[in-house]
Specification:
By secondary structure, the chain is mainly alpha-helical. It is built from 22 helices and no strands. Helix 7 packs parallel to helix 10. It is globular, with a radius of gyration of 24 Å.
Length: 505
Amino acid sequence: MANLKSLAKETAIYGISSIFGRFLNYLLVPLYTATMAASSGAYGVITNVYSYTALLLVLLTFGMETTFFRFANKEDEDPQRVYSTTLCLVGGVALAFVVLVLLFIHPIAAWMEYPDHPEYVATMFVCVAIDAFQSIPFAYLRYQRKALKFAALKLLFIVPNILINLLYFVGVPWLYGCEATRPLVSWFFDGQIDFAWAFYINLFCTASVTLFFRRELTGFRYVFDRRLAIRMWHYSWPILVFGIAGILNQVADKILFRFIAPHSGQETDVQLGIYGAAVKIAMIMTLITQAFRYAYEPFVFNKSKDKDSKETYALAMKYFLIFTLLAFLCVTGYLDVIKYIIAPDYWEGLKVTPIVMVAGILLGVFFNLSLWYKLIDKTVYGMWFSLAGCVVLIAVNVVFIPQYSYMACAWGGVAGYGTATLLSYIFGQRIYPIDYPLKSIGVYVLLTAFFFVLMQLVPASWPLMVRLGVNTVLIALFIAHTVHYDFPLSALPVVGKYFRRKGGR
């Protein structure tokens, strides 16, 4: 019982810090879109560059976080030796990457279509190399069960990052606008916001976090065990492939868009920025579902030895879908209010928001289905499913972006995640069959689709409060259905007793 309590406590700390961190990062979206006009294409550049860094982070860590945990917990391995070898591996690769980037920065920037701004590429690629190296000390903190320090350092990056961004994008222009304070900022600010500072600030904050890893990076003898490194690589490469496929499913559209979009010049960045902002709104649902996911994974492994585990997994899938479908209706139902997160000149991209959220739901279902190959230690299945989804996503983008612009990006995500989900379900039912309540799940899906269509049929000419009122009624009907069939009020803790009939249990 004590171990379970400890697990729950640590899960809560990791989960809350990650969710809170993501939420704080979302505060940059209204800041950037408010200070960067859509017509400038600046936010499109940010969207594109960050997509590259997300992919590079997976490549530079090459599955070593998970590999470190696996080898450090082996009885015949020295955890300190494993940690030192992992640090040397990841640190060496990160250093080599930085050297190569700086040596070939101009051709790399030209290939990425930023020939006039190699500083964008150099800044963020150095930043991602530091991030990759830091992932190992962060993993070591988790190994040592120092959840509080882990969470504190994660937030230590995010909070200053937001504050310095606010200072530059809001405070500095204000100071420049006042004659009395203009000399304070005129040495680096000419009255025009340079969005490259978003990259510079990120690099500064990322590098600063390294200073707080003194105990994790000093006080021991660095050893590189070549034989151990080879064994670790054999273990990690499937994880690397899985990670590449997974991250490509998230960022491939934003990378490919600049190469195959039907637009020319700056207009490509304009459209990419509009799409990127709309995707950020859709990611609100990710914040909501993340809480479920953090609690679900440890629950799965703790429950695996129980006789009724499969029945529990089936119900967990159902409740997950109910949860995410409700989130979908809430976001789409109140999109007329939520859209103010981004500036009005980005609103034309809101038509992709529901589509991207559907892709997010499919990703969540894929995550839930993935339990079967994790429980039987056959994670190679996950690699192949992710690769298949990635191929479909890229194909849809390559074929349809030239004609349909960023709408193809949104539907590519649905096609990719849908493929991975379908394959995982088909193979899972053959190898590790679980009797999911498909009929009940289907009812919820159809009900959500029906209510969503009704929301879209509400005339845009109606007053805002009337439209929101209609959508609220539809959401309430969904909740009422859920309460009636799956969440009876009488079963709720504390308050449930007030809904039980006399003589009932």
